[in-house]
Amino acid sequence: MDPLLAKAEPVSHGAVAEVQLRDDQYTLDHMRAFGMYNYLHLDSWYQDNVYYVDQFGRVMNLSVTLDTALQKPREVFRLPTDLTACDNRLCASMHFSSSTWVTLSDGTGRLYLIKSGKRGSSASEKWEIVFNEELGSPFIVAHSVSFVKSDAHSLAVLLLRVEKDELDTKGSGFHVTLEWVTIAEGKEGDPRYEIIKRRVLQGKSVPHYAAIEPSGEGLMIVSHKPFTFMQSESDKLEENDDAKISNEKKDPLYYWQQTEDDVTITVHLPQDIMRDDIKIHFSPDSICVTLKDQPPLMEGTLYSSVDHESCTWIIREDKSLEISLIKKNEGCRWTELIVGDTRGEFIMDPSQCSEIAESLMHLTSEVMNPNPDKEKPPCNAQELEECDAFLEDGASLCRFDGDSLKITHIINLGSNQYLFSVVVNPKEMPCFCLRHDVDALLWQPHSDQPENMWEHIATFNALGYVQASKQDKKFMACAPDYSYAALCECLRRVFIYRQPTPLATVLYNRKEGRQVGQVAKQLVATLEANDPILGFQATSERLFVLTTKTLFLIKVNSGN
């Protein structure tokens, strides 16, 4: 690995407001949420613009335009709270909701909404508190968005807490909560902002990724263990009412059975219905059943196509209507009769149960490896290198709807280990990077495209394998233009992995005898500091590395 020739510029400042973990914050979740917190905040709305909070509660900014005219960090805001007076506080946190709005927490449980003006310029940047309120126990701001809904400006903020769980006697004794708070301006020109909605999700692990959609209508979470919305008292009353209604529901409207060739539907008829009152329309993909002049009893798209000309119906002696549908695709098992219709009940006979159980037998075995001499045996865990082993079995990616509070999309990530997140376009949700085999793939969420909600936008070759070998890594990041990825250790060392670039001269691989057209450079920088690294951010041209007492800039653009 080549040493980095770019110059690192230290910028002196007051010490960062680092908060050490207390004795009662001893779990892995506390370490992930607060012990590994990134104290350096990148403002993606403006190029090469970073912020941090120092020990005096001052929000400090460094905006880089020319490396030759590097300025000292400047104070843009001061927290009203005396940070040293609160014993159980967390680290101060912030998120840039838009080009002119900032959400800020002092770590004591108070949330601030700041109108900042155009940031990165001392002439136009002026931070003004528009809203501040105590919201319970201390939290950190995980994400926030600014949007307009019903002609009113709103901000949605995601607050992360690790809280004591008295009911958890076998686990860590803690649970993780994500509070989704929506704050909106008053109606009819009222400039005051107030909370209009508070929702809480609870889980048993700190999420790797949690972000609100730009419209404020949904939420995406990547986590090792699932999150669920906690019910308020009003929600519980509504659910109890729904349960009573469901308990009062009558028997199923119809029953249906199937064989490999056909589907049989049975409907109980009212006493006054005669044969001439029944009208049934068959088509290749749908069915419509009407009694007298009433609205259709059954109507909709069938699960699969039928031979509509061969479909029949009869009235049986017990005054029931029996409809026979002939499957066009023989052997196809239907999982429902009419798509989306839950008013019917499927009846499976014992012979079908036996057939299904038999067809699944090959998936199970009482013997761990019943045929060890078989060609292409399963992967042997002993053949894996140490850096291939994951700490977790796998995570899941979920999308929650803000109105129904239910999961609309869920993807099991399996062994695709979460690596880091990055903002490529501040008007979109943050991207997340996953390990795929030896590579690392960057995915951009698109909340407005339900059929293509996650788009693969970049690949970092071999980064998945390389990062796994770095036992002391603390932070990972990549440039918004995908030109390089980088990671840092807890102390001093920073590793940079450039994307492959064309060579100016011809190079041959002597072992394989082929010409090499591109080479990807790997660089390393060693910081002249013995303090631990507390913050790490990447832009298209520079890396910003924050230690307790120094902010380093590393120039890593393609001209280097």
Notes on the structure:
This protein is mostly beta strands. Among the domains are: 139-232 and 393-414, no CATH class; 254-342, Immunoglobulin-like, CATH 2.60.40.790. Strand 30 (439-445) and strand 31 form a beta hairpin. The chain is globular, with a radius of gyration of 30 Å. The two termini are 16 Å apart. Mean pLDDT is 84; it is low at 5-12, 362-370 and 372-392.
- Number of strand segments: 40
Shape: globular
Number of helices: 4
Radius of gyration over C-alpha positions, nearest whole angstrom: 30 Å
Largest pleated sheet:
5 strands, mixed
Please state roughly what percent of the residues sit in beta strands, choosing from under 5%, 5-15%, 15-25%, 25-35%, 35-45% or over 45%.
Answer: 35-45%
The assigned structural class equals mainly beta
Q: Report helical residue fraction.
A: under 10%
Query: What is the first-to-last residue Cα distance?
Result: 16 Å
Give, in spatial order, the strands making up the sheet with the most strands: 1-37-34-33-32
- pLDDT averaged over residues: 84
The parts where pLDDT drops under 50 for at least 5 residues are: 5-12, 362-370, 372-392
